[in-house]
């Protein structure tokens, strides 16, 4: 999972490197935001080209028996041209995993709970929509 967070932060938001993330996401990965599919997720990750979304894990809890991972993370939006931090927000992310046909574990569902700061959530959503 630690490799996943680095990959998301560095590769998932670049069109020529997104394919690297195929090793983490199942093709039909679902998100609590109401969309599903790895290709849909990749398009969303490219929707804010001026900003990079970095996710840094603070604590991971891995449930091997139920194939779930919970992560306390800090999300940081960084302006690509300057490196200026635009927004930081705390999140709890929950990942459901399953083995693919080859036996490799893949993320099949992602549920994210954001820090309880309406101002931070509004700012984050603005950046995700490319309105920053």
How would the blueprint of this fold be written?
Blueprint (H helix, E strand, L loop, with lengths): L1 H9 L14 E7 L6 H8 L5 E13 L4 E12 L5 E15 L5 E10 L3 H11 L4
Sum this structure up briefly.
The chain has 132 residues and is of the alpha+beta class. The protein is 21% helix and 43% strand. It has three helices and five strands, in the order H-E-H-E-E-E-E-H.
- Supply the number of helical segments: 3
In whole angstroms, how far apart are the ends? 30 Å
Helix content: 10-25%
Q: Which topology does CATH recognise?
A: Nuclear Transport Factor 2, Chain: A
Provide the CATH architecture: Roll
Top CATH class: Alpha Beta
Secondary-structure content class = alpha+beta
Which word captures the global form? globular
**Residues in β-strands, percent:** 35-45%
Summarize the biggest pleated sheet: 5 strands, mixed
Task: Indicate the low-confidence ranges by residue numbers.
Answer: none
What is the multimeric organization of the chains shown? single chain
Helix and strand element order: HEHEEEEH
Report on the architecture of this protein:
This protein has 132 residues and is of the alpha+beta class. It contains three helices and five strands. It has one domain (2-128): Nuclear Transport Factor 2, Chain: A (Roll). The chain has helices at 2-10, 38-45, 118-128, and strands spanning 25-31, 51-63, 68-79, 85-99, 105-114. It is globular, with a radius of gyration of 14 Å. The N and C termini lie far apart (30 Å). The model has no long low-confidence stretch (mean pLDDT 92).
